[in-house]
Amino acid sequence: MALQGHIQELSEKHRKLEELIEDEMAHPDWNESRVAALKKQKLRIKDELQRLRSTVH
After folding, report:
1. Where are the domains of the chain?
2. Per-residue confidence at 56, pLDDT binned at 50, 70, 90?
């Protein structure tokens, strides 16, 4: 079940990054480079989640 716990942890990080991106973009003077970095991080986590989920199923 350690793998399942890791998947849940990554899912939570992915969700929090989505919130951070939305919060950042809600400001009129949002930082484009910060949003790009957050999106890259979110994509890396998504890829890792897909990889891990494919090993579970």
Report:
1. 2-56
2. confident
Provide the terminal-to-terminal Cα distance of the chain, rounded to the nearest Å.
Answer: 13
For 41, residues 6+ apart whose C-beta sits below 8 A from its C-beta are 17
Query: Alpha-carbon distance 17 to 8, whole Å?
Result: 14
Average the pLDDT over 19-37 and give the result.
96
Query: What is the C-alpha separation between 27 and 31, in angstroms, rounded?
Result: 9
pLDDT at residue 20 tops 80? yes
DSSP string covering the chain? -HHHHHHHHHHHHHHHHHHHHHHHHHSTT--HHHHHHHHHHHHHHHHHHHHHHHHH-
